[in-house]
Amino acid sequence: MKMKKIEWIILAAVVAVCAGLALFFYWPRSGDTVAVVSVDGTALYRIDLSRTARPYTFRIEEETGRPVSFEVADGRVRFVEVTCPDHICERTGWCGAPGERAVCMPNRTTLVCYERGELPPDDGVRWITESDHP
Ligand SMILES: [Zn+2]
Questions:
Q1: Which listed site, 4, 17, 18, 120, has its alpha carbon 20 to 30 Å from 27?
Q2: Where are the transmembrane segments (predicted)?
Q3: What is the CATH number of the domain that holds 89?
Q4: CB 98 within 8 A of CB 73
């Protein structure tokens, strides 16, 4: 069976539309990601990853009992300078796309990235921005 030229064109168009839709739905949309820092399962801080014109770090210690720092740069965030025995959290590296996460089990601290529209409810969670950390 030989396909006519018009059939090839229709097939190519269908494939192109599907590929376009797939990209639209699954392509990580940078600039629309918010990271949430939780300790003991309670969300404490939100980091707006769409506003990271300048790299900065922030540190929590009261909440965990031991120093845990985060580095924010280029729309991504990672654990740095964490006081924990295994450093799995730091080895996980950067989180910048919705669904990406890093966990520090010894400090009961999690870092999870969300699409802005899919953030869990805001229960007095504090926003961290670079202006807080000159
Ligand atoms: Zn750790």
A1: 120
A2: 7-27
A3: 2.60.320.10
A4: no
Among 5-9, 23-27, 104-108, the range with the most confident prediction by mean pLDDT is 104-108
The pTM of this model reads 0.74
9-24 pLDDT, tens digit per residue, is 989 999 998 888 887 6
Max CA distance (Å), the chain: 72
- What is the CA(109)–ligand 1 centre distance, in A? 8
How far apart are the CA of 134 and the centre of ligand 1, in A?
25
Helix (H, G, I), strand (E, B) or coil at 115: strand
Element of type H or E holding 88: helix 88-92
71 occurs within a structural domain? yes
Domain count, the chain: 1
User: What is the whole-number distance in angstroms between the Cα of residue 97 and the centre of ligand 1?
Assistant: 21
26 CA distance to ligand 1 middle (Å): 30
